[in-house]
């Protein structure tokens, strides 16, 4: 069964933007047109994609599955349209970067701003996403540069690996401000906020506790280092946090201490192995790689209170 792409595009916009109004503005068409496209898609697919509750559209489980399947396709067409526009306007290149959330809060926007300062005609495509999706986008050619966590899930990707020390953020109320370092024994049975049971930082922290005979007590799971740090600031527990998230935070409500033994986070820059990188992309990498290398060797001592 053939389904017109415009219907998928309207559905994708509603899912991504959250409302019909925002989707219509994004696609540059009227709200009734968006609603009509969605109704056509539901009739064609014989799927109920949204529940209408109190005037709001709530995606059904079927909508979530469909969105995952068409996301890369819709973004691919947007990518083609942007390339055509760049060629028509003779734009001097486009920087395409997909980054994980930790670097998206401060580091990458600042680097992009510095990069664009001498390139006023440069167009940009920047997106933050989870690491698996970033690798999918780079492998599909939607983004030229991806910055994400290991492991590498797609063949055909070149990787440049960086290893960063994570630091332990502890609520002020924990009474550990006089420690220059903390150990698993210091935090035995203390509540922790973690990045999911299978995340590399969680696994490595748990291993450090077990190796030192301390109980690693998990109080809360979350999906972003930023969320974990915000929960620390509310006094709910400690968390191992990456240096990028710490650098973009105000530092209020908690202390930061190095954990002995150290727990590391592996981040990679990925590009497609079978496609030469553009001049613009290589220049951006030449800018950010030395800065990431410096952060990788920096223990963030300036964030640690004496």
UniProtKB/TrEMBL annotation:
Residue ranges of every copy of the HTH lysR-type domain listed in the record: 3-60
Pfam families documented for this protein: HTH_1, LysR_substrate
Keyword Transferase listed: no
InterPro entries: LysR_HTH_N, LysR_subst-bd, WH-like_DNA-bd_sf, WH_DNA-bd_sf
GO molecular function annotation: DNA-binding transcription factor activity; sequence-specific DNA binding
Coiled coil: none
Keywords assigned by UniProt, alphabetized: DNA-binding, Transcription, Transcription regulation
Biological process terms in GO annotation: positive regulation of gene expression
Annotated family: Belongs to the LysR transcriptional regulatory family.
UniProt name for this protein: LysR family transcriptional regulator
């Amino acid at each position: 069964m053939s389904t017109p792409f415009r219907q998928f595009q309207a559905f994708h916009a509603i899912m991504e933007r959250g409302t019909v109004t925002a989707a219509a503005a994004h696609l540059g068409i009227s709200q009734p047109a968006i609603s009509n496209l969605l109704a056509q898609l539901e009739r064609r697919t014989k799927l109920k994609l949204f529940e209408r509750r109190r005037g709001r559209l709530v995606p059904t489980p079927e909508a979530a599955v469909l969105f995952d399947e068409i996301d890369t396709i819709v973004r691919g067409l947007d990518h083609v349209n942007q390339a055509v526009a760049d060629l028509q306007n003779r734009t001097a290149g486009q920087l395409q970067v997909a980054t994980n959330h930790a670097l998206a809060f401060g580091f990458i926007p600042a680097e992009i701003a510095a990069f664009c300062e001498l390139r006023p005609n440069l167009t940009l495509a920047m997106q933050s996403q989870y690491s698996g999706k970033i690798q999918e986008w780079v492998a599909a050619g939607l983004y030229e540069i991806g910055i994400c966590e290991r492991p590498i899930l797609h063949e055909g990707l070149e990787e440049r690996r960086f290893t960063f020390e994570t630091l332990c953020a502890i609520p002020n109320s924990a009474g550990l401000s006089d420690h220059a370092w903390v150990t698993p024994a210091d935090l035995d049975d203390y509540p922790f906020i973690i990045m999911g049971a299978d995340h590399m930082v969680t696994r490595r922290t748990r291993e450090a506790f077990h190796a030192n005979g301390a109980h690693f007590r998990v109080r809360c799971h979350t999906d972003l280092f930023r969320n974990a740090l915000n929960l620390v600031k509310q006094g709910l527990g400690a968390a191992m946090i990456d240096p990028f998230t710490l650098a973009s935070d105000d530092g209020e409500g908690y202390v930061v201490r190095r954990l002995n033994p150290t727990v590391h986070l592996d981040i990679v820059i990925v590009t497609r192995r079978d496609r030469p990188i553009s001049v613009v992309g290589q220049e951006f990498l030449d800018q950010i790689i030395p800065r990431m290398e410096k952060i990788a060797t920096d223990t963030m001592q300036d964030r640690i209170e004496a």
